[in-house]
Amino acid sequence: MNTDKPLRVGIGGLGTVGYAVARRLDAGVGGLSLTAVSARDSDRARQRAAEFTPPVAVLPLAELAAVCDVVVECAPAESFIEVAEPAVRAGRVFVPISVGALLDHGSLVDLATERGARIIVPSGALLGLDAVCAAAEGQINSVRMVTTKPPRGLAGAPHLVKNNIDVLKLDAPMKVFEGSAREGAAGFPANVNVAAALGLAGIGADATQLEIWADPAIERNAHHIIVEADSARFELKIENVPSDENPRTGRLVALSVVATLRRLVAPLVVGT
Fold first, then answer.
1. CB 229 within 8 A of CB 138
2. Residues 235-261: pLDDT tens digits?
3. Is residue 272 part of a domain?
């Protein structure tokens, strides 16, 4: 995207990811300008916004699109549509991290087509989405993903609560879910947005198979992907360091969002 003026960026949510992205932008990323933020705790948001130079506006989620060219969604999944719909309707570039919630609101893609908006999903804590996208231009036969996390990174997920699964007392690895990426994203909305992104990149969230394991012996969030296609067979594995503030989220997620934003204005872009 070419522009003579910096793209105005708004961030919906100032939690672990949103605050880290905001700080990066405030420190300076050429071609991008942190313009507004939003958060459920408006008082805390104002305190954090006052740290930036210059201080930025603190607005309700739905109002970010009115003053920004790019809206980044870093909010809890239940607030997704509050920031997504106005941004897409206004024809903005919309960058979501709650990719599982995007699966539940597929009509946003049609709205983006109608309004001239773009929805750009960051790779987040995953690797290899460029290869999956490329393979999808041909024929992908199967995509399988195995996610393994420390128990504290899964505790409290709706699927675990519904099935009365206590992962905090484990002394050995335990498979806590097996099914489609769509089902996994619904049952673990704060944990496996990567599975939803993988589904969107490849053969769809319903055809993408997912296993989730809780392992008390590990300290990193691990994802193992196996893709069988007519162009290639590949396996990808990544081990992410969890955020200090939120063990459900890897440190790489915020960096991925910044890299995605940088691609919007970079004169050279590497990768599919």
1. yes
2. 999 999 988 888 788 899 999 999 999
3. no
* Catalytic annotation, pick one of 105, 159, 223, 224: 223
CA 256 to CA 239: how far, in whole Å? 15
Distances (CA, A) of 167 to 31, 212, 216, 252: 45, 12, 9, 24
The CATH number assigned to the domain holding 147 equals 3.30.360.10
Asked whether residue 2 is assigned to any structural domain, the reply reads no
Q: Are 97 and 16 in contact, with CB atoms under 8 Å apart?
A: no
Is 159 in the active site? no
**C-alpha to C-alpha distance for 200 and 188, rounded to whole angstroms:** 17
- At 195-217, the pLDDT tens digits run 999 999 999 999 999 999 999 99
Residues 100 and 182 in one domain: no
Task: Indicate the pTM of the whole model.
Answer: 0.93
Residue-range definition of the domain harbouring residue 16: 7-123+252-263
Whether residue 61 lies inside any domain: the answer is yes
CA 162 from chain centre, in angstroms, equals: 24
